[in-house]
Design brief:
Elements: E1 2-7, E2 16-21, E3 31-36, E4 42-43, H1 46-53, E5 62-63, E6 68-69, H2 71-83, H3 119-122, H4 124-128, H5 171-184, H6 200-203, H7 218-256
Antiparallel strand pairs: 1-2, 2-3, 3-4, 5-6
Length: about 260
């Protein structure tokens, strides 16, 4: 491995940034970033830096990989503060947001207030049946989650029996819909009825993910339990190997001193 250690102006004086470039293996060419305090303490992630420095340094817009303050993150942080009701600062933007639909006319969302004379509030049909947006999963297309080292996380593989329906029949959209349904719905998740395949834009059930109806059998549960057990064993082996590697690295650092 090739190591490069430089000063980090974004952090207090004496802090060092170390970039370790991997030379072999499947990840050859990629690099790991670490930071060292003036006393020599090593930090492997941004959360560790935040816990150590506390309120003495604002790291909300600090990019852990580059070691610089990112203006884009600073702007997002200011926007979150402006909309945060607990920040103590009122939001002066009172304009209603625009409904995101395919209509060529801009339609603001309906603001529901607690005033007794509010017509929307007294509408029983609207009170019992709140409108839902169809195919909202398309808004997440192209987004990928990443870990603290900015490495993109691979999405899970769905069973072959799940077939997506709708304008964007991709596994990613179906995975987002199923995850949301499992998190928010209190009823069983069974997919769409057969009529939804004729015209999903008309017959689709908003409370179910946009996929064909499916049934989870006892055999499916047993197979999934085996997969979970195998993943747990792999995770245990990886954690053991990581602990041994960190111990060996700490031993080498003490000997080098």
């Amino acid at each position: 491995m090739e190591k490069r250690r430089t000063d980090c102006p974004a952090l207090p004086p004496g802090w060092k940034k170390e970039e370790v470039i991997r030379k072999s293996g499947l990840s050859a060419g990629k690099s790991d970033v670490y930071y060292y305090s003036p006393s020599g303490k090593k930090f492997r992630s941004k959360p560790q830096l935040v816990r150590f420095l506390g309120s003495s340094v604002d790291l909300s817009c600090f990019d852990f990989r580059t070691g610089k303050m990112a203006p884009g993150k600073l702007q997002k942080s200011k926007q979150r503060t402006r909309h945060d009701p607990g920040s103590g600062k009122p939001d002066l933007n009172t304009a209603l947001p625009i409904r995101q639909t395919a209509s060529i006319f801009k339609q603001p969302v309906t603001k529901v207030t607690g005033h007794p004379g509010n017509k929307v509030k007294s509408d029983q049909q609207r009170a019992t049946e709140q409108p839902r947006q169809l195919f909202w999963e398309k808004r997440l297309k192209g987004l990928r989650s990443s870990d603290v080292t900015q490495e993109t996380l691979r999405t899970m593989d769905l069973p072959s029996g799940l077939h997506c329906i709708g304008p964007d029949p991709s596994e990613d959209c179906l995975l987002w819909a199923i995850s949301s349904a499992l998190h928010l719905s209190s009823g069983p998740i069974s997919g769409q009825s057969s009529s939804a395949e004729k015209n999903p834009a008309v017959w689709i059930n908003c409370s179910q993910p946009p996929c064909r109806s499916f049934t989870v059998t006892e055999q499916h549960i047993r197979v999934q339990e085996q997969v979970v057990n195998q993943v747990r064993r792999s995770l245990e082996e990886a954690l053991t190997a990581d602990t041994l590697a960190r111990t060996a690295e700490s031993t080498r650092e003490r000997r080098a001193r």
